[in-house]
Amino acid sequence: MTELDAFATFRPLLFTIAYEILGCAADAEDVLQESYLRWRDATEVTHPRAYLVQIVTRQAINHLRTVRRRREDYVGTWLPEPIRTAPDAGQDVLLAESVSMAMLLVLETLGPTERAVFVLSEVFGHSHREIANMIDKSEAAVRQIAHRARAHVASRRRRFQPDSDTSRAVIGRFLRAANTGDVGALLEVLAPDVVQISDGGGRVTAARRPIIGAEQVARFMIGLSQNAMAGATAEFCSFNALPAVLARSASGELDTVLVVEMSEGLITGLYGIRNPDKLQFVDVVRTLDIAAGPA
Q1: Which residues on neighbouring strands pair with residue 198, listed in sequence order?
Q2: Residue 197, CB-side half-sphere exposure with 13 Å CA sphere
Q3: Are β-strands 84-85 and 285-286 bridged in parallel, bridged antiparallel, or unpaired?
Q4: Predicted local confidence at residue 294, as pLDDT
Q5: Per residue in 246-281, pLDDT tens?
Q6: Where do runs of H (alpha helix) occur along 110-234?
């Protein structure tokens, strides 16, 4: 097996690790490219998977430290770059929640090392000892970091419901109500504390702050559907292992990826990504993997 073949075998796993640490597919690809070059030049590697996970983890932590400075100056609200996933990706609930917009935004509030430790421990099942070797810290230090990160995430995480046929039926009702201006019908499918977040990155028009509450979100979506997005077409698809809508303008140009999160039959989160830089690879279906297990 060549170096390229071995790397390709673990690529879905490595991309998933990098994406969950970074929240950006383009940055994750940069990390994988750099990691491959290091892998290609390595000699006498006894355990390829463990070696590659270590390289990707370290590169991702360093990369995150760099890009976080840019995110602090981001125009409007920063959202993770959406990744297109297979329709059945939501069947793995642990995977689906770990790449959900809500979880990635919670992870964004952790420091780079805390984020990596949480992802490797809670999602990928690595022991504290394994993680200590990956990030060059003591096992005791990793244990403390993991405890802090777990408590932090637990205090902020929202209830999660993976994609389902019911979810898509509710989204269909939501879209029809928004297009017809039916506030009452919208309120029937929106959770009282629903959050709508837009990301235009200063490149296109988008709400600069999150919109919170069913009434406010309903009126915002009606205004959007009947004005800026009038005549737009909607395609159901899956992004980040969740139901999503790919919206194209009346002229056929890609406008928005709207990722929808739900709980108990109600929409709890609407994440509208409009920044063109984050929509360049919406047709690429990503293969994710967290099933490889500890090194």
Answers
A1: 272
A2: 18
A3: parallel
A4: 44
A5: 999 888 899 999 999 998 899 999 999 999 999 999
A6: 112-118, 128-135, 139-156, 165-180, 183-189, 214-226
